[in-house]
Amino acid sequence: MSHWSFKSIQSQRQWLEVEVNGQTIQLPAGSSVLAGLLEHSDMAGAVEWFCAIGQCQHCRVQINGKDALACQIQAMSG
Fold it and tell me: Is the pTM of this model over 0.70?
C-alpha cells in the first residue's frame, strides 16, 4: 500500500500584493476586495455584516479615487 497525503492549498495559491490605505497586504489571486478587507479586519471598519452580492452596499469603498462595491470587484496587484 502506498503512502498518500493531502496537499496544502496554501502552497498552490498565487498571491497578489495590494495597497490599502497606504499599507501593502497580500491576498490570494481571485479574491474580491471585500474578502481582502475582511481578512485584514482592522481595515474593514465598523460594519458587522455584508451581503457579499452588492445589494446592501455596506462595502462601498473608493478604489483609485472611484466609488465601488468591494464585494463586486476582484482584487488586482497595485
Answer: no
3-class SS letters over the chain: CCCCCCCCHHHHCCEEEEEECCEEEEEECCCEHHHHHHHCHHHCCCCCCCCCCCCCCCCEEEECCEEEEHHHCECCCC
Cβ-in-10-Å burial (0-12, 13-18, 19+) of 71 comes to: buried
Instruction: Write the pLDDT tens digit of every residue in 19-58.
Output: 887 888 888 888 898 888 887 766 555 566 778 888 988 8
